[in-house]
TrEMBL record:
<dbReference type="InterPro" id="IPR017452">
    <property type="entry name" value="GPCR_Rhodpsn_7TM"/>
</dbReference>
<dbReference type="Pfam" id="PF00001">
    <property type="entry name" value="7tm_1"/>
</dbReference>
<feature type="transmembrane region" description="Helical">
    <location>
        <begin position="49"/>
        <end position="73"/>
    </location>
</feature>
<feature type="transmembrane region" description="Helical">
    <location>
        <begin position="123"/>
        <end position="144"/>
    </location>
</feature>
<dbReference type="InterPro" id="IPR027294">
    <property type="entry name" value="NPS_rcpt"/>
</dbReference>
<feature type="domain" description="G-protein coupled receptors family 1 profile">
    <location>
        <begin position="28"/>
        <end position="283"/>
    </location>
</feature>
<dbReference type="InterPro" id="IPR000276">
    <property type="entry name" value="GPCR_Rhodpsn"/>
</dbReference>
<feature type="transmembrane region" description="Helical">
    <location>
        <begin position="217"/>
        <end position="237"/>
    </location>
</feature>
<feature type="transmembrane region" description="Helical">
    <location>
        <begin position="16"/>
        <end position="37"/>
    </location>
</feature>
<dbReference type="GO" id="GO:0016020">
    <property type="term" value="C:membrane"/>
</dbReference>
<feature type="transmembrane region" description="Helical">
    <location>
        <begin position="184"/>
        <end position="205"/>
    </location>
</feature>
<keyword id="KW-0812">Transmembrane</keyword>
<keyword id="KW-1133">Transmembrane helix</keyword>
<feature type="transmembrane region" description="Helical">
    <location>
        <begin position="93"/>
        <end position="111"/>
    </location>
</feature>
<protein>
    <submittedName>
        <fullName>Si:dkey-78k11.9</fullName>
    </submittedName>
</protein>
<dbReference type="GO" id="GO:0008188">
    <property type="term" value="F:neuropeptide receptor activity"/>
</dbReference>
<keyword id="KW-0472">Membrane</keyword>
Length: 342
């Protein structure tokens, strides 16, 4: 029963998911990148990471029709071995590139809230570009060895495995575990550390602007959703499935939990590609900011310029509205600050 359900999912549901993600993801990412380019100067340095996040999606989305056709034809690949490896490589670039740039956005937001003047004022566009290049290099170095593993069996050249053939599965498991640690676990720990600290800061200071708290919590929810739905299940079940195959190659017998893990892994492969649809939620979260900036500035003028306080208040923002200048103002109330319009 479980085997039939798995086959039904693999050959019908998975192609349907890929087709839907291709259509919806293409439209959502075109809209997202268009919005980023239109508001390039308003967004500041974070626009570089958003742009690269969109590029990562566009590397993967054009391959989905081919993968959809592959599974719809009951795992028969008719596009050649070279294109099979390119397709799988693009998938990995999208997956780990997305994780990398989401982590960069999280660190940027963390610095903007916790260290708005000490660090954020020193970050330039050049730094953001250099970090983006470094992310692409790391992701490429991590993903490139995958292309050297065979994607089909010697006597089954019509296959296009997303891992490798049974002869090399033990070596691939070792590679996959290291890849998971460097490409997923470390970014996840960085993200959790950043947003854990941000949450403490937001909860500790009761005078923080309500809009600031809402926007921080919204982004945190989006990223938790992305990692919980798309990334965590995929990495867990991928490595468990590989481990099961290693056990079979050693003992000539699959463990009792193999079918359950295999089924969960197939489902997680459909879920992981949803990141190309969910990533534009990050664009959506950042896009609705100009009106809030004007509202915040007007609010500041009403508060400070209509008082008799002897201090001179000049406000500072860091080239991006979600740097939460209001948090910095509340922490530094009564001190002379520098304000520069974006």
């Amino acid at each position: 029963m479980l085997a039939c359900a798995t086959l039904l999912y693999t050959y019908l549901t998975l192609p349907a998911i890929y087709t839907s993600v291709f259509i919806i993801g293409l439209g959502a990412n075109v809209w997202g990148l268009k919005s980023v380019l239109q508001k390039w100067k308003i967004l500041g340095h974070i626009n570089v990471f958003l742009l690269n996040l969109g590029i990562a999606n566009f590397l993967f989305l054009p391959t989905l029709p081919f993968l959809s056709a592959y599974y719809f034809m009951k795992s028969k690949w008719i596009f050649g071995n070279a294109f099979c490896k390119i397709t799988r490589f693009c998938f990995n670039l999208n997956l780990y590139g997305s994780i990398g740039f989401l982590t960069c956005i999280s660190v940027y937001r963390y610095l903007a809230i916790v260290h708005p003047m000490k660090v954020m004022g020193r970050i330039t566009v050049t730094h953001s570009v250099a970090i983006s290049v470094m992310v692409w290099l790391l992701v490429s170095v991590q993903s490139f060895p995958d292309m050297f593993f065979p994607k089909n069996e010697p006597n089954r050249t019509e296959k296009c495995y997303h891992t490798t053939s049974k002869e090399y599965v033990e070596d691939y498991l070792k590679y996959s575990v290291g890849w998971t640690f460097t490409g997923f676990v470390i970014p996840l720990l960085i993200l959790l550390g950043c947003y854990g600290h941000v949450t403490l800061v937001l909860c500790r200071i009761n005078t923080i602007d309500k809009v600031v708290k809402q926007r921080s919590l919204k982004l945190m929810f989006i990223l938790i959703l992305l990692f919980s739905v798309c990334y965590i299940p995929y990495h867990i079940f991928k490595n468990l499935s590989l481990y099961s195959r290693v056990l079979y190659s050693t003992n000539k017998k699959y463990p009792s939990w193999d079918k359950t893990v295999f089924c969960a892994h197939q489902i997680s492969r459909g879920l992981v590609c949803l990141n190309s649809v969910l990533n534009p939620l990050v664009y959506l979260h950042v896009m609705d900011i100009p009106a809030q900036i004007r509202q915040m500035l007007q609010h500041f003028r009403q508060i400070f310029f209509n008082t008799n306080d002897s201090h001179e208040f000049v406000y500072y923002t860091v080239l991006h509205p979600v740097n939460y200048c209001s948090l910095f103002l509340q922490q530094q109330f009564g001190h002379k600050l520098l304000y520069k319009y974006i």
